[in-house]
Every structure is written in structure tokens, then in C-alpha cells.
Design brief:
Distance between the termini: 36 Å
Number of helices: 14
Shape: elongated
Number of strands: 20
CATH class of the largest domain: Alpha Beta
Helix content: 25-40%
CATH superfamily of the largest domain: Zn peptidases
CATH architecture of the largest domain: 3-Layer(aba) Sandwich
Number of domains: 2
Radius of gyration: 24 Å
Largest sheet: 9 strands, mixed
Length: 488
């Protein structure tokens, strides 16, 4: 792959021209000089212009298949960008000029969105986990940095935005892929401080002792069994000029490892539990993207970081703990730990941050994977205005959401006989809804709130167009686009 992808013209760039499968004709606006070469390439045997299919056209051009015109969507454009960068990897150009926007109908996307989608796709498709190699690793055969540009100003602007977004997604993917023998709550706090220094964010870390004194029973109990004690990381983006009357709070579950605690995961159930921090990592990547894009909106990111381990000091089923907002919780299952750390962070956000909108994201339940698979995240939302903006952000980012219900019956189901509520019901009925119902006890009813369960979409176990095996960084683009919606 390429060491990096950046905006730049470069010398003798390779020009990429998009063509549709059913037409196989060139778009308007191309220079006459290369028309003959491009038309000849259209007749290349076997070239069907399927999405992402590439065929050389002389020394300085390639044709890029866009598939059938009626099937083209922004999501398709991202996948095409990812396929394109893999083909370019073999050709190893130093610079590329994209002319794809000339072919894409405005009803699908304007030049700026075409550039953004291709930029995101190329950068996401160019990423791989190659930072843990040792003495037996294969030699690094990455190509030099690739410069990408477009003659259209809007397309170039979109390219820049797309690359910026994808860089933050890839940053999040790197943190997510970091194993638990390296990534623990203390290490996470250090990474947050580094990010704050490099991007102009403010960072505060509430340590274990402080969390105890503040009454954060969920965060303290979940993480106290580990040698690496829990903490609450708070990042803030507040530029000089911000949209008045808007303050977003983003909360992300950050379990650097989840053994299940005394409700120990069995068989191979612990494999991949380093990804139980991916909600918090999404918030971390979002804060990076918001700062890089200089969005004029006040945003606070909260990462309750803990490792759910087993020791003589670990919390147990039957424990009753008091949370930050005073709610008492009967622990029925120590493997339902994510909602406990989230609960304290949500209550803290309501009391201390006082946001105008509150969003949490978490790899919370296996039940949402059973319900929705790996095709989308499940979400719950208490406010129509927030829901409208969240769905608009989902439409822009193509990070899909599907709404699930949260009724008063669900909340009542979470009530315990020995405490206010229990952390997991005696039956798995409505399992992902139970998680949302539990969290609702820690959110001020006056604050618009959305809960996003990303358990099925935060990592993939097989290579896809945009993603290789490992973390996807789901949520970074969604929440950044949500912040952009509020900044309008």
C-alpha cells in the first residue's frame, strides 16, 4: 500500500476517468488530446466497467468502472475508492488526478461529495495493521506517498475533507487494534493527552481515587480488579467561535479488555475483547476529526476506561453498588459491565457538562448482533430533533443505523427486588433493549439522548472493500457528520 495519501498535484499525474457499465462512453469535458487513447481503452477485451474495475488507457490515464448508473450511490463511491487504491498500489504512480466527478450524476452526488467519498474510500482502503511486526515480519514494501488532486475546486475540497475524516478513522483503528498488554486505561489516558497536545483539544483525566471520591461506583467496581485502575477521560473542543446554544457530549464505552469478570466468558469468548473499547475509540477519533476540520461547535468527549479482570478485589454477582447519580444497582452479571461504566459517564455528562444533546456509543450487547447482524448499528433516541440530525449524519457518512424501541415497560423490566435496578435482567428477552433501558436511568429526561450499539459493526472478521480484518472505526464519520449538522 501507499505510505500515505495526501492532497497534491505532483508531476505527470495518472488521470482517472469514470465510466458506466451500460454505456461505456467517456464523460463530457475531457481534453481532445487523449480522446483517442481513452476510446481505445473502452474496447479492452473483458472490461465491463464493474464498480472499481480499472483498465489502463495509455501511459497517463486509467478508466475506472462505476457499475450501472442506477445502482450508483455514495456508499458505492467509497467502495470504488477503496478498490481503486488497491489497483493503484500495483501501478505505483506518485500522483493521481481524479476526473470521476464528470461522470457522476448530480442526483447521486455533486463534485464535492464525489471527492469526499473517493477520498474516504481510498484512505480507508489503504490501511492495514502493520505496526506490530517483529524480526520475522515481511519487509516493508509500501509505495511512497501518493498525491491526489482534482481540477474541479469542489471535488478537491471534498477530497481534502474525505482524507481528513479517513485519517481520523484510521487513527481510531490503530488504537482499537492495540492489544490489551499495551492498551490499558493508563495508556489510553496517555494517548488522549497526546491527541490533545497535537490537535488543540483540552484534556482532563479523573483518576481512580478521584472517581472513588466522586461516587462513580460503576466505573470503580468494574475496573478495580485490574492492576491498571480505571479512569474517566474528558476531551473538549471549544474553538473561539462556536455555534451559540449548542454543546454536544459524546460518551464512549472504553473497556480496554473484558474477561467477563467473575461471570467469566467461556470457550473462545474472550478472543477479540480488545475491541470492547471501540465505542470510546470512536469518540477519540471523532474528537480528532472535529478538531482537524475546525468545526465551530462545542463538543465534549468522555471515555470511561476500565479493564474488566478477575482478582480477589473484583466485583461479584450479588454486589449492590451506588452510582454517580445516586441510583443503586444490583449486579446480576459482571459481564454486563459496559453499561455500568457508561452510566457513570452519562450521569457525569448530564451534571457537569450540561449538554444540549448527548450521544453514547458502545459495543454493548451480543443481542444487537443477533438482531441486526453486521449490516448496521442499533440506536435508541429520545428526541425527534436529535433523531433527525443523527439520521442525516448517517445518510452522509453511510454508517447505517436502525431504530429499536425503548418503552416504559422496558424500563420497568430493569427494576430489581433488592436495589433500584439490576444491570441485567433474568431473561435475555429484548437483550439489546435492556442495555438502553438501563442507561436511561442515568440520563436527564430533559436532555436529548441517543444510544448507539455498535457491537456488530465495530470490527470485521473478513476483508471487505473498505476494511481489512480488524477494527472499522465505525462511528467516527457518523459522529463527526452529526457535529457538522449542529454546526450548520
Amino acid at each position: 500500500m501507499f505510505k500515505s495519501i495526501r492532497i497534491g498535484a505532483g508531476r505527470s499525474p495518472l488521470t482517472v476517468v469514470g465510466v458506466f457499465a451500460e454505456e461505456l462512453k467517456l464523460p463530457r469535458g475531457l481534453g481532445k488530446k487523449d480522446q483517442a487513447t481513452l476510446k481505445a481503452a473502452l474496447k479492452t477485451p473483458g472490461f465491463k466497467a464493474e464498480p472499481g474495475e480499472v483498465v489502463p488507457a495509455g501511459e497517463n490515464h486509467v478508466l475506472l468502472g462505476l457499475g450501472k448508473k442506477d445502482d450508483l450511490k455514495t456508499e458505492t463511491l467509497r467502495n470504488i475508492g477503496a478498490k481503486l487504491v488497491k489497483q493503484l498500489d500495483r501501478m505505483a504512480p506518485k500522483a493521481v488526478r481524479l476526473e470521476v466527478h464528470r461522470s457522476v450524476p448530480r442526483s447521486v452526488a455533486g463534485p464535492e461529495m464525489v471527492g469526499q467519498c473517493l477520498g474516504e474510500g481510498m484512505a480507508l482502503g489503504n490501511w492495514k495493521v502493520d505496526f506490530f511486526g517483529g524480526s520475522a515480519a515481511k519487509p516493508d514494501d509500501a509505495n511512497p506517498p501518493l498525491s491526489v488532486t482534482c481540477d474541479d475546486a469542489g471535488c478537491k475540497k471534498g477530497l481534502k475533507r474525505g482524507l481528513t475524516l479517513a485519517e481520523s478513522v484510521n487513527y481510531a483503528r490503530r488504537i482499537a487494534a492495540t492489544p490489551p498488554n499495551i492498551c490499558n486505561p493508563t495508556w489510553m489516558a496517555g494517548e488522549a493527552r497526546k491527541l490533545a497536545r497535537s490537535s488543540g483539544l483540552r484534556c482532563k483525566v479523573i483518576n481512580f481515587k478521584q472517581a472513588q471520591e466522586m461516587g462513580m461506583g460503576g466505573l470503580v467496581n468494574v475496573g478495580k480488579g485490574s492492576d491498571h485502575k480505571p479512569c474517566l477521560i474528558v476531551l473538549e473542543h471549544k474553538p473561539a467561535r462556536v455555534k451559540k446554544g449548542v454543546k454536544l457530549a459524546l460518551v464512549g464505552k472504553t473497556l480496554t479488555y473484558d474477561s467477563g469478570g467473575y461471570s467469566l466468558k467461556i470457550n473462545n469468548g474472550m478472543k477479540g475483547m480488545k475491541y470492547d473499547k471501540n465505542g470510546g475509540i470512536a469518540v477519540l477519533g471523532t474528537m480528532r476529526a472535529i478538531a482537524a476540520l475546525k468545526l465551530p461547535v462545542h463538543v465534549v468527549g468522555l471515555l470511561p476506561a476500565a479493564a474488566n479482570m478477575v482478582s480477589g478485589d473484583s466485583y461479584r454477582p450479588d454486589d449492590i453498588i451506588k452510582m454517580y447519580n445516586g441510583v443503586s444497582v444490583e449486579v446480576t452479571n459482571t459481564d454486563a459491565e459496559g453499561r455500568l461504566v457508561l452510566a457513570d459517564a452519562l450521569a457525569y455528562a448530564c451534571k457537569q457538562v450540561k449538554p444540549t444533546a448527548l450521544i453514547d456509543t458502545a459495543t454493548l450487547t451480543g443481542g444487537v448482533v443477533v438482531a441486526l447482524g453486521s449490516w448496521c448499528a442499533g440506536y435508541w433516541c429520545t428526541d425527534d430533533g436529535l433523531k433527525k440530525r443523527l439520521l442525516a449524519a448517517s445518510g452522509t457518512s453511510d454508517e447505517r443505523l436502525w431504530e429499536l424501541p425503548l418503552w416504559s415497560e422496558h424500563k420497568e423490566f430493569m427494576r430489581s427486588k433488592h436495589a433500584d435496578i439490576w444491570n441485567s435482567g433474568p431473561k435475555r428477552d429484548g437483550h439489546p433493549i435492556q442495555g438502553a433501558a438501563f442507561l436511561s436511568y442515568f440520563v436527564d429526561e430533559k436532555i436529548p439522548w441517543a444510544h448507539v450499539d455498535i457491537a456488530g459493526v465495530s470490527d470485521v472478521d473478513g476483508d471487505k472493500d473498505l476494511y481489512v480484518v480488524g477494527p472499522t472505526g465505525y462511528g467516527v464519520r457518523l459522529m463527526t457528520e452529526l457535529a457538522a449538522e449542529y454546526a450548520k
